[in-house]
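Repro:
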Amino acid sequence: MPFSNLFENPMVVIELYGGYVGWILMTCLVATVVAICFYYLVKGFQNRQTEEGDSLPQPGQVDESRVEDTSLVEDVSPQQDGQESLTCPVCKSDSCNDDHESTFLFHREQYKDHVDEERINLTQRQGEEDQSLTVFEEINQFKQLKAVTIIGMKLDDSSLSNLFQCTSIRTLKLSNCQLASIPRSLANLKDLEILDLSHNNLTTLPTRPIRSLPCLKSLNVSHNKIAVIGDVVKKLQALQNFDVSYNDVGQVPYEILEMESLEIFSCSHNKIERWLGPPNEERQANTSPVTSLNMSNNLLTEVPQHVKELKNLLMVNFAHNKIGANIPDKIVSQQISELFYLPSVSTLRLGNNNIKTLPPLDTTRLSQNIVLIDLINNEIGEVPAALLSMPTLRALYLGSNKITRLPADLDLNKLSPTLYDIDLSNNEVDDLPLVLCFLPSLKKLSLKQNKITSLSENMKSCKSLSFLDMSHNMLKEIPSHVFGLPELKVIDVSNNQITTVSSLRKEESSVIEEFTLAENGLSQFPEVLIQMKKLKKVDLRRNKIKEIPESTMGMAKDVKLQVQDNPIVDPPLQVCQAGLEAIQAFYEDLTTASSITQCLKTLFLGTYEAGKTSLVRVFKLNRSCLTKPEERTDGIEIAELHLSVPNTPGITVSVWDFAGQEIYYITHQFFLSAKALILLIVNLEEYESARFYSTCGNWVENIIAKVRNPVIIPVVTHIDKLSSEEVEQRCEDLAKKLEDQERRRIKDLQKQLERIDESLTISKEAVHAIDRKKQIDTLLQKRPLIHPKPVPVSSGKNLEGIQYLKQVILNYAVNKELFPEVGRLVPKAWADTEACVDRKGKELDVPYMTWDEFTSLLKENVPNLQPESRIKTVAQYLHDTGKILWYSEIESLQNHVFLKPASLVDIFRKVIRYNFEDVVDYDSDSCYREADITPAEFQKMKIDLVRKGVLHTKLLRCLWSDIKEKCRQGTFNVIFNTLIELMQQFDLCYDLDREENDNHTKSTTSSPERLLLPWHLKEDLGEMAKAQWESGGSRVISLQYQFPSFIPPGLFARLAVRAHNPKHNLHFVLHWNTGALCKHKKNRMLVLLENEGTERLVVSLSVRPESKDAHTYVEEDLIYHSWSTLKMLTLEIEELLKQWPGVRFDRFTACPKCHQPSFPGEWLHRRYSRHHRTVICCFCNERVNLHDVLPPLTLADHIAAYIAFRFCHQEMLPDVVSDRQLLRVAQKLGAEWESLAIHLGFTQADVYKFKCDHPHSAEQQILAMLTAWKTRKGRNATRHNLQLVLREAGVDYDAISSLDDYRVEIEEG
């Protein structure tokens, strides 16, 4: 009887078994059901408690919100209050969900409750402090234990010996446990089948214990320091998988071939130079069962002769060796031919060697199973015809060689019927090879980086081609027959010389989904794109297109259109950057109603007393009104005025008059705009050739660094004080100096480009160098426009030169290519938005809103501004024209909108002013007395600010008293706290009390008592800091950012503010005007930040141990923590430098011996291979430990290497997403990857860790995140599942479609 029937009709039990027995059985049944229900009820209650653990204090915990000093929390332990702690002893988390559940191992008394466990799993969370684990002898009571996994825990010999008493263990993984040796008691595990000792410190194989393991099938000792394999392996007759990769092995013993069961042997990433022969030098028939051999990344100069005897080999990998170096080509060619003739081989990898010639292969002897041949990055000149006729070949990779052509005398009817992926990139091919057009199954073809000038009509024969990469060639035109290929979905012709793209003919149609035309010479939008009905993505970046036509209304709205870095005039650049949907919305809105805008944002810049304010007054009043000393500008003055000259239409000018004192420079950067005309004012009376840089040159450097390609008019004033000859002479000198400065800047950029090209010849995969090359290319293309001759004027009574200056300004203003916003037709909704913002700005006490408040305001008051993307477009337009301030490009400030720019200026100017000591006086304002500040307190607060940079918020409330007067009753405190938060997010100050009272819990609504403003610091504590710094340990790692001629104002001060963030765990010991000495709160390290050099053009970050006693540190831990700390700080600098896209700088690592910047700053993308343990300093010629120059490989690097290895061995399911596919997705994703990471289950801390591990490349950050997701999912990390989660997260189509396999995924064996 089915068991389910008992629950449907329990009385059947009584009927079946009789009264008494039946009642007993039914009672037992009911009791069982009740017990099960009760169990799950309790379990659910416990889970709910865990989820609500943040809101209710658990037993053994203290509610931190109710105590002043959180140090009390640390003093309360489970032992003290008699309650069991719910904190995970591994990661110290109260709500741990990680897969390290066997935490009972930390508690000896809990062993007895787990003696029936079959599995133990304990994993240390990455980035946590080192955790030691003691395995107690009671573990020998675990009679059913089958599998043990311990990762990241320090284990001593005693713990290992105890663990090895559990003789039932069959799977043992002790990875990253800092093991230097293995006790002999390992031999007790007679049933052990899988042993993983990877990522430890073993220098030799544990010979004696492992030879006594008769059942051992898999041995992984990768990522250790093993130098010799030895002949012990022949004792391991059951071993099937042997991984000794990432060690220091110098040679492979012949005994490997005598192992009776070995199928997979990986010895990659070692120092192997040869494979030894048999001990007695007698050749024996070889019957080795090895099917997979990975010898990549070694030092082999020839193919070992024993390999040809391995008749069962399926996968052969000799990539990244030196095969062909110093060996005659004939011998190498013969050795390679033997590999092709192996009867079972299916995958052959010989890329990244020195192979010059391929053998003329005998087609009758070739393996009939070969599906993949990888020969990339060699020196091959000719391709054997047999390669293109193999009946089973699916992928042929010949990129980065010296191939000029393919065989032309082939029988086209005998071409390979299965070959569908060919890579011929980075060769010397000058014409499309005819043979490629007749491969019947060709789906993917890469011919990028060749010398091809045209695409012939033979391409019409490529009926199955779906992916074509012709980027970096010499094409000038794309004919329509290319677009008409029936299966072509992706085409990349970027980086050519294309000026014309043909339209489709009437009989032609296209199925292209992704079209890349970036970096060509297109001057018009290609009309063929409108004809492509299945198009999903178009890349037109870095062309010469000036207009996106209204005909794009006929394209699908979901097409992703990229048009950045084009000189676009119409529609507005802000619209075009928002994408095709925004462009279509703009044209749609223009059809209903439009308005004309004439406003030009104009910035007046120059040194103190240059005559800026007097010149603004002339423009405003049309008469002389010279500025008195007490009327000089504080911060920035903003005004709108009408500018006109006779017989010329006038325009409205938004004038921004910047104060010239140095103290204001740190805030000026927030108001410099790429969409503004800049007048650089120079006092010609005071000008001297020797003072060019201080009066003019540094301003130009600053403007270019911030804006990149500004329009600058040099204006010289006070000419009425000089003779006409003096005016002419000094103007000529100033013009020559400006011309020479720009010439030197270009020459310096070109030299940087040469150095980068040299580094790329060494490492073609130096991602940071490629990114830097693109940045410099952009700087060379987008040069500043500086008016050729300074315009001489006088603001005196005769107003000499004023009319001419107005005419020059108007001539630039009406230039549509420079300032397309002037005189532009815009939708009426945009004008309505401007009016709405202006009204709201007048209503608010402080004209400031969060982004959410701003969007809500516009949605309620301005129709036709949905979705939010339209609001962003209009907001960017209003920012560019000076109507509002919204820093969309600065992540920390994107949530803040200032409806009136002058309001932010007013906030800053109350605190940052050159004459603070003179203007701020106790008797001049009653607000100090009203705040109960005594004269003595006031004087102390004033001195603290002026000399020590310490701003008491009690004083700040008084400085902002006029803001308080504007506020409605009861609202100032909230606004006050908001303004302080804004100053912190602008990196202008940090909370000093959070540093000095770090253990105190503050209310989230209370303001700090003291702020520190770094640029106000006057004391030089460098000598005192030097003494404390040199008291630390000897091992110093120092990184430098060097600026050749100009460093962004306030960069170091803002870095110091960011370094004070709690996430860096730094306690500031000393902070002075050019440096900060800190102690790391967790890792016992000293951290030194300095602004070095005579002109302060170097920013250095250094770290060393806090103590000279070397015994207090483990070297590996010290290296890891040092680089982790430094990389997090470099991330802050990199984020700051993004705010100066035109600044020039170089990264260096200092030699720890001579302290000179000897090594290029490759802090992430390593140029040196793991074979280098030391490098030579070019200054002192001393050998330096590589880990003092470059960070060690991270866990993400190891995971990537592991996945690459598993992919080669095909130990994944065929549908498991490959690392190559993950890379394609990473290349397609943008800023949305962080929200995707949260969707995939990562925390904000995880996201930050990905950023810290890869500070210089967003692509590497995304790849690390995706790799970690794949590791978590294991065999469930399929391409289908990844596409599902990408769709759920709302990721763009092109990222999802990149997982559709254009690159072949090989199924071997």
